[in-house]
Amino acid sequence: MSTLHKFSIRTPYPISQNQLSSNGTYLALPFTKSSIGVWSLQSWQSKPLELVAHKRRVSAIAFGFRHSPTLLCTAGSDYIIVWNVEKARTTHDTGQQIRGTIIGTNYDEPQYVAFNPDDNLVALCVENEVLILDAQKERLDMRLEGHTALVTCAEFCLHSPDTVVSASEDRTFKVWDIATQCLIYQSSIISASPFLCLAIDPYSQCVALGTTDGQVRMYDLSEGKGFRCLHHVDIAKHLRQQNRLKAEQKASTSSQGPATISSKPSWKKQEADHSVVDEEEDDDAAECGESILGLGFSSPKTAPKAGARGKGDHSNVPAFLLPDTSLVEELSDSTSHLMIGTPGALLQLNAASCMVEQYIDFQGPLQSDEHIDQEDVVLGVAGNYSFSSSPHDSQVTCLIGSLFHNSVHTLAIGCDASRKPDSDSAACKLSQMMEKSLDIITTESDGGSSNTLEISVIPNTPVAEKSLLRSELVPKSKAVGSTSKKSKSAGTKNVKAKDQPLTFKSKVSSSGYSETSRTKMFSPQTKQASSKKATISIQKSSSAPGISSLLKEYSVDSEPPKTLKTKLVVSEQGSPINSISFSDDGQSIACAMADKSAQILKMPLTGKGTAFSGHNGALNSATWSHHNQWLLTTSDDKTARIWTRGLADPVMTFDRVNNNFDSDKEKATTGDKSNALFGKEIKLGQFYYVDRFVLLMSANSLFMYKYHLDTKVDDIKRYQTNSRYKLVKQFQMEKAQQITAMSAINTFNSYIVLCAGSDKSIEALDMNVGKTAARIADVQSRAVHVIAQNQGSMYASHPSSSYDLFATSAVTDGIKVWDLRSNRCVKHLEGHLNRAHHCGLRFSPCGKYIATGAEDRSAYVYDLRGGTYIRKLSGHTEVVSDVTFHPLYPEIVTATLDGKLRLYSDR
Hints:
With 907 residues, this protein is mainly β.
């Protein structure tokens, strides 16, 4: 998004303490000490329209919301005047005297003035009060009092014209309802620094507040949401990071004299290097400051619409004929941006993801318009801001009042520049450094330009000839025929006969002493017809999904779960449940317990199920295979095991890194250095590529195995297994000491595996080529502890682009939703309490909701199309450690650290 310096206007005095105003068409500034000039942004070089009526200095100026007619309010300590701009221009052209409407007189010097959406009321901030003036009846309507310090700003809500939000230097904000003449909400003391500015988003119904310590907080103004805090963004921290990047760039480009070879330890050298950077950083911070001087929302590409997404005006068109729109496009198109003005820089923040998308440094040259002789302009230090959106296009007009000069600069943000930005400019270099900080891997095209490498969860290329995904472990088949007979006859002379069991059979039959006596000797078949029918009937496995359930579909338009249906105590001793997961058919749920066992419970939850015990440590995860017959468990005992229904012992155990080919030989007991045991706990494991591979996560490595399972049980050699596995490849994250989370899709063939590291980064591994396809640095403020992908279920499908959404969660940093194709955060969800425990999260099968556990003994359900949670499932007796959605019904199951499950439904 480009930024142009359009023009600068001289003012009669420094107006850093005055309120500026623009509506995208006109610009109003002090023209003399007591008059106001109105310029047209299209023809700013023409003589302005001068409005003369005040006798004292004008301190606040504001345009109305409507463009026909365009109203302008000017406020001073003598008069409060409302002007009709179009009428004033007509009067000026005819040579008559321009007159405005005086709606108030003899007030103290106003700090701020604002119109309501209908332009018939004016909010005036004077000292500790907010005055509501009627512009039509020319009188004072009401007085809003209660703040204990200077009221810095007040605005009307666009979605509710009778609601006024005021912010004060007493570090609180208040919400008033002037229709009922009452106070709706009064905040506590939020910050140690006073509020300077506020802005209201007309589309998401939230208010943004800025403080002098560089913090921006956004609160929900929707009815019934409790005015909860949606986001808290530390702009001061981002400014310090940018100053550090500038200092490092300056140090790398400038000549530093002769090279220094030091024998000091690394920690001493780093301290010396950072001291220089910190000195320069402190100088910049002291010069410019970190206060939030101005805030303003820009309109999104398309306003959010209620109802079904992606349908538009095609309500009667079949679903398969609709365009391939998904939640990704809806999130990107309906996102507004928050413009943040500081003394030394201007930032553009994505209001949904809280990611800084553009940074404009005022200390460097800024590209100017072609109409100005000066090619680049340095703005210096800003004193105040004003933002407005143009009614004709998507560009944002930004007015910046200089702190030390008698001038106002006008910037056009988001416009199509007539010429490309200079690649050598400081703003361009800083933007490039921000892109490099994301560590997005790029590829050079034939033309020499750098393009982001496109990756997708759904494969768009065939499997490579030498791909890892073609690996397969085929068991050795026994030789049959004459060759085997010859080998047997040849070896009988020299080889002794091995010890054989007494029965010479693989199975030992029971003696029959415990059986009851057979009293019924003969039973004639009298119903032959019914017996024939019985032989024809299809025998259905208890674990396999029925044909009727396969024909069902998940209700995409269903509401999120809210009603408690079932409570179940899994562990009577209160052993924590670390992880839960539904089988793909939704008929069973697996629980990874801290008491070294895995529990399989049948649906509906009645307590009936199966317990698998054999691990020597707490279980970390329990995941299902795609055909719902195998269960993979990982444990702190440095092993992973595969279980199958009907068998008490595991089918296969992963205890060595390379393979288990020597598991039954003496070599395994003596210790093979080339095939060592796992050195760390196996934190997570899952089936991959439709059960063809197994992925295990341990320490700083991701292991990919091919395997073969043999479920046959020999009563004589029951501790010997014919199941085998072999390492295909071991992946390690480049800069991380430990892999903290991993995710891959097993319901269909996908090349992408996501890994999060302790260095706060995420790597997307392309298993088709066996390399890292993309890397995102600084994903969250702390290391990611869980990754969830939007993979639907076997009863629900989505457009192809929806599968590229994935969510991450970190302690104290909420949930972030990412688009894999662009490596960008598209949503930041905050509101649940997560300060210490690694609480799980899941996408719903419909893809519209995200559920997560929390430490306040509740589970939260977020709507991706909104900015806050819509369900709080409370009533738990301990921390909610994990959540999971039913693949067929709109139900959610929560697990707690005291060994209990709860099932919630939408009915």
